[in-house]
Amino acid sequence: MGKPQSVGNFRFWFADERWEWSDEVAVMHGYPPGTVTPTTELLLAHKHPEDRAQVASALAKTVEHGEPFSSRHRIIDTDGAVHHVIVVADRMIGEHGELVGTAGYYIDVTGTLEEHRQETLDDTLPELYAARAVIEQAKGALMLVYGISPEQAFKVLSWRSQETNVKLRALAAQLVADIGSMVHSTVHMRTEFDHLLLTAHERIQAGS
């Protein structure tokens, strides 16, 4: 998956606004693993000043309406370096089927196309050429929903491919096919797409 800190997971419980984050997310923010307990205040303090209000609003909707915490924004680590991150999340369900929180991933998409290719293309280059069209379509969907560049969209696809051990071509094709099932509402489009992205491998495996 490239550099260890490029992707990390988190959980957020609605009832007491309690956060858990992986070592990778801690490192993104500039903290050695296990040295800090994440809180809403701490997370907001690391947001880029121009993005902080947007993220605070997204968090408020998460707490008030039970929506997954999803966002594209910048964070500033403890050394002052700026990271461009995408937060992809889904609902977290309790043992009795109740909605208890949101869980997902921070994806650090900072960097250049060449860096992304160096990290991800060694194993996927042959199938990339064989399935360029469907991969480009999936990238286009990611770019539209998340407002990111082609390079960043490719990194997100490559991350899910490696995270789920599903070929890049198959993942892209499944995602493109799934888009037709989305309810066309700009209000919930991001939430629906996050869910499709995080569960595409399950539909591929079910169809195998």
Automatic annotation (TrEMBL):
InterPro entries the UniProt entry points to: ANTAR, CheY-like_superfamily, PAS, PAS-like_dom_sf, PAS_fold_3, Sensor_kinase/Photoreceptor, WH-like_DNA-bd_sf
Record's protein name: histidine kinase
Keyword entries, A-Z: Kinase, Phosphoprotein, Transferase
SMART domains documented for this protein: ANTAR (SM01012)
Domain ANTAR: 115-176
Catalytic activity: ATP + protein L-histidine = ADP + protein N-phospho-L-histidine
PANTHER family: PAC DOMAIN-CONTAINING PROTEIN, PHYTOCHROME-LIKE PROTEIN CPH1
Source organism, top-level taxon: Bacteria
EC number in record: 2.7.13.3
Residue ranges occupied by any PAS domain in the UniProt entry: 21-66
Signal peptide: none
Phosphoprotein listed as a keyword: yes
Organism: Nocardia goodfellowii
